[in-house]
Amino acid sequence: MRILVALPRFPYPLDKGDKLRAFNQIKFLSAHNEVYLFCTSSHWVQDGDFKEVGKYCKDIKIVHPNKFITAVNVVRAFFSVRSLQVGYWTTKKTVRKYRKFEKKVKPDVLFCQMIRTVEWVRKSKVPKVLDFQDALSKNIERRMSYARFLWKKVLHYEFKMVRSCEYDAFDIFDAFTIISAPDRDVIPHRRSSEIVVLPNGIDTEYFAPQDSPKNYDIVFCGNMKYPPNVDAVKHLVRDIMPKIWEVLPQTKVLISGTNPKKEVKALENERVIVTGRVEDIRQSYAQSRVFVAPMRLGSGLQNKLLEAMTMRIPCVTSKIASDALGTEAGKHLLVGENTEDFAQKILSLLQNETLCSEIAQNGNEYVVRNFNWEKCNDILESILTNASNKH
Q1: Who contacts 342 (Cβ-Cβ below 8 Å, separation ≥6)?
Q2: Whether the model pTM is above 0.70
Q3: Phi, psi of 17 (to 5 degrees)
């Protein structure tokens, strides 16, 4: 089968959840199919990154949209009552280059990631499968709750437009996937039950438990430019940690991940370390006693939790993140309901080594048993095959 994959971002390096998902899907699909990749990128792709993805693709076409044109497109999207981010990713150049590449490839099926790619393929006659990734409209709606003034109005507008795009997708695509059941359930379309839940997998050999000195008590890992992650670490350091420091004043926090924003760097002090990008994120997990992800915003599945649990690090997180994993609170991880509860759950792990080991072991076994790339991508391949055969 000849599969044309359309992505809004080049899927390497693996510093974002959508890139991690796309890369592993491409890698698996290439074993039994011809995979072609079309994507946009706001920066020039490094040779090493291109070669890594190129191992699994017959051909790759990358479009670098002009930044001025993308900005103009966002303004045009507003005045034509369309999604701002779909406008950002849909330039005339991108659509023209996509159609030319599709004509050259002659694919049996298209596999598109996120609604950002919808306008590229809208007029294509080729069978189409859309990976919603997550419920983007719900992600934006949650961010509205913590936004202020003009930004709140912008998010409210974008929420309505993205919700409309999600509805529109059901008239364009033949099949759909999404990362978790909670995300599927908050897309209120009469055909939402058709969306197949395909969680991410985890490389259990790479993220294997390590024996390492525990230099930090609490760790948070992730892309530190992503708004839900920024909100989570600010909430952790400013609201939750003071309650913990009252009891354990020497507790150290490690914030590890690429592209930390100024407001994240501003959190750093003698008890809070902000590393920025690290060569091997496993070291950040291995050197820490407890992983804490007090997520209040966002949607989808938190890969950071999968990684920490696989490395046998006990986790404390929010209900939003826990529900996406399908975990049992109190057994596979601990769930904080509010600031005070988060602090108490973290303290219970820091002060009880037996509980720490029990949660860590249960979490590890749960992830290894339920999050497997091969199993999920087998299902994806069958979805693509069925869509192709229908036509």
Answers
A1: 240, 292, 294, 316, 336
A2: yes
A3: -60, -40
